[in-house]
């Protein structure tokens, strides 16, 4: 027909299988059923053109990645086990009881150990599109099982893995999304926090954080009024949305205040609409008049601007403003203001700290995983000041989404042992890896891309559930079959376990 | 060098990572370490050229399969969940406790249900290289997790799936293994049992079973001497190895007698070396002289031939001879006699019985799985004589190895319900599938190929463990890491389970 649709004129009709006349929801309709119903009847939901398109794009892009890695770059696709033993110091792993009383497998959270062992085994270019498992019930847009493109190479440095990854994305890119230009910009972790208040910056944003610590520190008013001390960790940052205060409502203000107090207790937030007059009273409750004037000059504030200012402990200050920067941008864009640049803005985030502070026995945890190579320039700090050590880790970020991450790994067993000990991890649990490193392990490194999220981004889907054929709910439930369910007494006996009701 | 090896003349040497001087076993050696040691240090074992070759062949062949299915045949590669609910009537499935007290996932034994639901969802050509899980501890050459190429199509018949599979194998075949010629021969299940005593015939074998039931039935001597009744299920079969009795030793005789008595109690085995004279006494203990003469004529027995004869219940008779046919062939080949034809002999086995006898409440179990379409010619027998119903199932066999199997599925919910009820399976457990079939499910069918075994065959490996990077032992143990291991009290608390020691 003129519309491009097809009209079929039927001569003979044979019904191969009758269908119920009243399906739970109609397929030819613009307004979709609510998600719980879509999930319960996923096999009907899959008939929507968007779902058909998403799954076909997924298949196509993954195939292009394989073609690039195998046919162009000589990688070997190797399957690694998912039933293994717990990796200490990572995410919560599902356990699987066996017929051997009291003995359990863990479902791997990634092929990390196996890919390193493959390097020791002389497979110098490995990849796998790997199923991974994490028991992180209730975290937004997470699935108990997910898929990552897992890559590892021997005799490489950070730059060559980044280059390979960029080439891989270019080769598997969808033409209809426009050009993807390489090399991607690199940003140090400290700069990402300084400018965007997050390690996943959305580089499409026109506005950034502005550091006003030096100005605020000249004033004693803040200390007098709030008791906040100007220690090494003090920070004062601002975000300005020029001419955009008109969409700032009281409910937005209340929401932002709530987020700040609940999630970032060590930062104090001030939200001020810049007007012709009297707007400074919103700041002088905490800051001296001199300081407020300096801030006005530095930030070049004008009537109609929206100002967010936060003071306190630097990490909380940066992060609350990073969050509000996104949220207020979203609010403005929902009102029709275009702020973000079009297309995809790719970034490599580098020079992450190797360790982060943690409220545990050692006061320290690994920022990514215990196998990341410390930055060679910082090796001397490992024993004396570990929190200052950077790691050879890199994250790939696009439009504010973390698409992947990787690192150069530790290939020396003594260094690996030292790092495990700093983290308070029992080295006996990792003796197989330490022994392997001692057997002539080549220097190696790699990366893993989160394919569910990457494909969701390509498909412009709001949730990864829209690019997974049979996803689970936020609570890990399969709405179609009702899984997880109770097991039989025979199963309990076979696996030597008892449950609360027994 | 002249040998083709490379000699390197070193000008500068930098040691990137030192290795222990004394590795558990040397890599440059023809005599391999014993398997337990190889498994404990798998990362060293992977350095052997055979393992490198096997893993690279695996990667290459799997890629060719994908290229054929996606690029040539427009299949969609779709990942399906592994955490699901138990499928009734299949293999033992691993269970995975959740944070929800008493609720468990099961690890899928195959994507069977999901691929059928995808057909209902309008994905008419699906495939996946899928990880599957079965808890079959201790069965020879099985792994708790394994990989299958899983295919499903809508609007197909048996022949089109066979043809697609043959094309797939031809396209992904290794040139160095010689030609693979299609179409593959088809053999009815009954004929496979009649000629080879197994549903996985090795068609390279020169000798087959020979049916002598008609001769033996003319004699009353057997009944008098053994009490064996000539009921409908009676069978007498022979296998003759012409001129091959010289390698038949007393210990072989004892071994075969033991197998027959232990595994096939309803068959009586006679093993006779044909000589110039007096060999008949080995048969006349049970059979009348007339019958022995007729057998001699029918089988054309001559001095030096080796005769195996079995009488009793047909299934046991056929199976014991099928097993001895292989075992004695292996013994002869180990002595240097060439019996098997060279190359690969492919077979499709068709017309399997839909159900088999079982010692359970219903006296019946499914031969493959409850979703197989009954043969249309036998539908009238479903209610009255289900054991006589054939299924639209097909197995792919090569050189005596089952490489894959599939079927046309039931697409009508009433028929599916009827079959579940015959099997005594609670239909409530399968309500999601029944509902899906009721929503306009197209006729569909598919196949799954066991890739570990297929690749082992291509690599001429004796065990699937030689084509898996990190296999587990027969007991499901990972020798490298010691998995499965005990879990922490925190894990037990988190997953609401107690173990025997608690």
From TrEMBL, chains A, B:
PROSITE patterns documented for this protein: AA_TRNA_LIGASE_II (PS50862)
InterPro entries, alphabetized: Aa-tRNA-synt_II, aa-tRNA-synth_II, aa-tRNA-synth_II/BPL/LPL, Asp-tRNA-ligase_1, Asp/Asn-tRNA-synth_IIb, AspRS_core, GAD-like_sf
GO molecular function: ligase activity
Cited SUPFAM superfamilies: Class II aaRS and biotin synthetases, GAD domain-like
Gene3D superfamilies: Bira Bifunctional Protein, Domain 2 (3.30.930.10), GAD-like domain (3.30.1360.30)
Source organism, top-level taxon: Eukaryota
CDD domains: AspRS_core
This protein's record includes keyword Aminoacyl-tRNA synthetase: yes
Transferase keyword on record: no
Alphabetical list of Pfam families matching this protein: tRNA-synt_2
Coiled coil: none
Keywords associated with the record: Aminoacyl-tRNA synthetase, ATP-binding, Ligase, Nucleotide-binding, Protein biosynthesis
Domain Aminoacyl-transfer RNA synthetases class-II family profile: residue ranges: 55-471
Family under the similarity heading: Belongs to the class-II aminoacyl-tRNA synthetase family. Type 1 subfamily.
Name of protein: Aspartate--tRNA ligase, mitochondrial isoform X3
Gene giving rise to this polypeptide: LOC107217702
């Amino acid at each position: 027909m003129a519309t491009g649709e097809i009209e079929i004129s039927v001569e003979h009709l044979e019904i191969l299988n009758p269908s119920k006349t009243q399906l739970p929801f109609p397929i030819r309709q613009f307004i979709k059923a609510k998600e719980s119903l879509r999930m319960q009847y996923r096999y009907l939901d899959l008939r929507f053109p968007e779902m058909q398109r998403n799954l076909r794009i997924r298949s196509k892009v993954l195939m292009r990645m394989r073609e690039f890695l195998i046919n162009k770059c000589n990688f070997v696709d190797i399957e690694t086990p998912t039933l293994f033993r717990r990796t200490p110091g990572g995410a919560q792993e599902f356990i699987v009881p066996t017929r051997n009383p009291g003995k359990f497998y863990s479902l791997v959270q990634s092929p990390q150990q196996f890919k390193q062992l493959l390097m020791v085994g002389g497979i110098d270019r490995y990849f796998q599109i790997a199923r991974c498992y994490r028991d992180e019930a209730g975290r937004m847009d997470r699935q108990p099982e997910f898929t990552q493109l897992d890559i590892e190479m021997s005799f490489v440095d950070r730059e060559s893995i980044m280059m390979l990854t960029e080439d891989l994305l270019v080769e598997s890119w969808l033409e209809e999304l426009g050009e993807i230009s390489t090399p991607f910009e690199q940003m140090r972790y400290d700069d990402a926090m300084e400018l965007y208040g997050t390690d996943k910056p959305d580089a499409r944003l026109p506005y950034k954080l502005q550091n006003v610590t030096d100005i605020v520190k000249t004033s004693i008013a803040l200390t007098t009024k709030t008791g906040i001390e100007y220690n090494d960790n003090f920070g004062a940052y601002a975000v300005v949305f020029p001419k955009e205060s008109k969409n700032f409502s009281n409910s937005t203000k209340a929401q932002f205040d709530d987020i700040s107090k609940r999630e970032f207790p060590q930062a104090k937030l001030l939200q001020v609409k810049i007007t012709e007059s009297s707007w400074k009273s919103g700041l002088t409750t905490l800051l001296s008049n001199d300081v407020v004037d300096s801030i006005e000059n530095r930030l070049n504030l004008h009537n109609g601007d929206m100002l967010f200012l936060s003071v306190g402990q630097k990490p909380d200050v940066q992060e609350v403003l990073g969050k509000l920067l996104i949220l207020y941008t979203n609010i403005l864009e929902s009102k029709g203001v275009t702020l973000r640049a079009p297309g995809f803005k790719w970034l490599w985030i580098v020079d992450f700290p190797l360790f982060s502070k943690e409220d545990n026995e050692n006061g320290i945890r690994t920022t990514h995983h215990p196998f990341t190579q410390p930055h060679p320039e910082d090796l001397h700090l490992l024993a004396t000041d570990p929190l200052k050590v950077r790691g050879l880790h890199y994250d790939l970020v696009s439009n504010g989404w973390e698409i992947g991450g990787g690192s150069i790994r530790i290939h020396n067993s003594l260094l690996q042992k030292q790092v495990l000990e700093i983290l308070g991890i029992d080295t006996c649990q990792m003796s197989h890896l330490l022994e392997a490193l001692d057997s002539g392990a080549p220097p190696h490194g790699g990366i893993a891309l989160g394919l569910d999220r990457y494909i969701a981004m390509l498909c412009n889907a709001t949730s990864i559930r829209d690019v997974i054929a049979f996803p689970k709910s936020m609570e890990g439930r399969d709405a179609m079959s009702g899984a997880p369910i109770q097991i039989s007494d025979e199963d309990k006996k076979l696996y030597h376990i008892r449950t609360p009701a027994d």
